Amino acid sequence: MQYLSNLWADAHGAILEYLVQPLMFRIGLTTYYEDVGAAVELVMLGATQILVILCVFRPIERGWSGERWSDPRPVRVDVTYTLLNQLGLLPLLVFVVMLPLVDELLDMTRLHGFVLPTVEQLVPWLGRNPLALFLVYFAAYDFAGYWMHRLQHALPWWWALHSLHHSQRQVGVWTDNRNHVFDDILREIWLAVVAILIGVEPGQYVGLILATRLIESFSHANVRFGFGRVFDKIVVDPWFHRTHHALASPAEPHIHDRNFSAVLPIWDILFRTAVYDYKPRPTGVDDPGVDADNALGWWGQQVAVGKRLGAAIAATFARQRTSRAT
Amino acid sequence: MENPYICNGRAGIVAALLRGLAAFVVVLGCAGHGGSGVSAQEIETAIVLNSEEASVSVVDRKAMVQTHKFTVGREPHHIILTPDGRDLVLASTVTNELLFLDPATGIERRRIRNIVDPYQLGYSPDGKWFVTAAFRLHHVDIYEAKDFRLAKRIFIQSLPSHMAFDKASKTVFVTLQGTNSIVAYDLATQAELWTAPVGEAPAGILVLPDQKSLLVGLTGEDAAVVVDIEKRAVTKRIPTGRGAHNIFPMPGGKRILITNRIENTISAIDLATLSVVDTFHVSGGPDDLDFTPDGKQFWVTQRFRRKVAAVDMATRQVLGTVAVGRSPHGIFINGPHTVLRTVEPPAPAGKRP
Ligand SMILES: [Zn+2]
After folding, report:
1. pLDDT of the residue at B344
2. Is residue A26 part of a domain?
3. Chain centroid to CA A49
4. Res B351 pLDDT > 60
5. A214 part of a folded domain
6. CA B137 distance to own-chain centroid
7. What are the Cα distances from residue B114, in Å, to A202, A304, B238?
8. Mean per-residue pLDDT for B279-288?
9. Strand pairing class (B6-8; B45-50)
């Protein structure tokens, strides 16, 4: 672990020192030198995730595959999502949406002398126990993620976007990043609000992001196994998350409105949305309009889902108008 | 009257941790000194601020290891001594606070809140004024050092980054990275005196001993420039290396060191001839540095490498590196040399702010 962490630090340092900082200097952006470090690390995170998917998760998926897939095309689209998001879009959104939002709001309040206490200031014991502090932040961000996910399913306009993620009938280790760009932007805004309210983990936030993303990727794996009846209550496994992706049926019309947790199933257990029945189910969305996503490529999906969002917003306004009229 | 911002006696966890550390160091010190007590000079530590992970590393300079790490607010960047040398002032930028530490042990003595975005900080040589540059929030604050009452907040949309004071404690000069210029403020009236363009991304700044000119590191270029205070113009350019950044007077006061962050070198400039007389190679984007009490080494933060490097000034060799935290920025080495940190000797005892 220490070895890996040193390796990471050395690689990050070398990229900054030999590649990125000289480039920043050349194009006259040395002033922003403090921000670049984080940007480079985000791209490194993405590359690491892709590498782990390729070298670890894919072989597992091949060896213990659950479903046999007939059409490779929709899977290729998910690969496109993963490459695009991990290497470009997500780091970009962090710097274009999330950090500016956090900075703007924090700076505004800070300028007036208003600073929320950090977690360690509230509970000094945590300041002395980095691992415990890490877990507290991990749980807090996951908790916030759980509630965002509940909203993604509950609000019709947000479901119009998020249903793209669920439309995949061949859910696998590449599916985690299958999201509309607007959905990614909303997630960054959500994260920004959480970052303002509870702060950013001071030491190991890179490890925090990586751990979250890897668990999320693996929970989509096309396998028929889990972590066992004890561990699957602690960490989300493929069984647990597959139920969330299940195709609704007349017998189970809301099966996809279960198992929302991304990493820690405790939230589903606490808020009574957990299902542990280990039943193999097909995945997808029982709405032909949404299912049509599968015939499209990356760009086609972005356009189609954008229209779906427009229609959902229009429908919301129409509903409000009729309710006011009556 | 009690100052509402000062939380005296707020020992907290940092203090507790450091007490433990101090005890550890004392034990080590006693072992090495036949059981006699230990004085401040014998504690051979370096205090390093890991700006991106909100922590402070305490490094044992003899064993070349990090002995301890503790969390402090968010984004601690710089650390300075009070003019009387009694307190170390650590500024936590995002949590708007100053921590006053014992320079020998690092134990927290008091904490001052509501210092908004204290990215860079400095005392006037007479100890009367305390100035902060809020890099992110674009303002310069001038406080009365005795009670940290804000005399004036001067908004300036230009990323104020580093500062220097004249010997008479009349003027503070601040580098402005957003507009590639420097600004001078009158401390007593807090009025802006003048601004002058100096070059790309000016950072470290120093008033030269003759009090007639300034030395400014240009991080966006590969040189330091000399700025004539009366003419308010650049009169000389001293090529040092790409990313010329912060400036540190060397023991003896005849030379300065300037870190070249992109070139990965540190240049020594002779103050009499204003020319480069020596170069040290240190990788990892060298940023802030400090000198050991014997004046033989300097320790410099390697921001991209998450390390600090110890450099022997006679041989120009890197003696070793110590792993610390993310993006280490400010560094402080305790010892009797600390007077060299300010251009002027410290104010007499009793004039403590
Ligand atoms: Zn979902």
Report:
1. 37
2. no
3. 13
4. no
5. yes
6. 20
7. 21, 50, 39
8. 92
9. unpaired
Write b or e for each residue in A234-267: b if 16 or more Cβ atoms lie within 10 A of its Cβ, otherwise e: ebbbbbbbbbbbbbbeeebeebbebbbbbbbbbb
In tens, the pLDDT along B57-85 reads 888 888 888 888 877 878 888 888 888 88
- Ligand 1 centre to CA of A84 (Å) is 21
Among A7, A25, A112, pick the best mutation site for testing chain B contact (most B Cβ within 10 A): A25
Give A114→chain B minimum CA distance, Å.
8
CA distance A260 to A142: 10
Measured in whole angstroms, the distance separating CA B178 from the mean position of its chain's CA atoms is 21
For A8, A51, B60, the CA distances from B101, given in Å and listed in that order, are 33, 45, 17
Whether A30 sits inside 8 A of B220 (CB atoms) is yes
Residue A202 lies in a domain: yes
Query: What per-residue confidence (pLDDT) applies to A179?
Result: 92
What Å distances lie between residue A78 and A49, A59, A199, A290, A305, CA to CA? 14, 17, 32, 16, 15
B277: closest CA of chain A, how far (Å): 25
Strand order in the sheet with B318-323: B286-291, B297-302, B307-312, B318-323
In eight-state DSSP terms, residue B141 is E
- ∠ CA B55-B243-A32 to the nearest 5 degrees? 55
Select the residue of B136, B178, B304 nearest A17 (Cβ to Cβ): B304
Structural domain boundaries, residue A239: 36-325
> Percent of chain A scored above 90 by pLDDT?
33
How many degrees, rounded to 5, is the angle at CA B172 between CA B170 and CA B174?
A: 165
Adjacent-strand bridge partners of B76? B92
Considering only CB atoms, which chain A residues are within 8 Å of B14?
Answer: 127
How many helical (H) and strand (E) elements, i.e. helices and strands, does chain A have?
A: 18, 0
Q: Which residue of B has its CA nearest to A22?
A: B262
Of A10, A113, A127, nearest to B114 by CB-CB distance is A113
- List the one residue out of B273, B271, B216 whose CA is nearest residue B244: B216
Each residue's pLDDT tens digit, B175-228: 999 899 999 999 999 999 999 999 999 999 999 999 999 999 999 999 999 999
Q: Closest chain A residue to B68 measured between Cα atoms?
A: A128
Under an 8 A CB cutoff, do B54 and A202 touch?
A: yes
Closest alpha carbon within chain B to A200: B74
Of B141, B137, B103, residue with least CA distance to B122: B141
Quickly count: other Cβ atoms within 10 Å of residue A280's Cβ. 11
Residue A152 lies in a domain: yes
Number of domains in chain A: 1
In chain A, which residues have their Cβ closer than 8 Å to the Cβ of B283?
Answer: 17
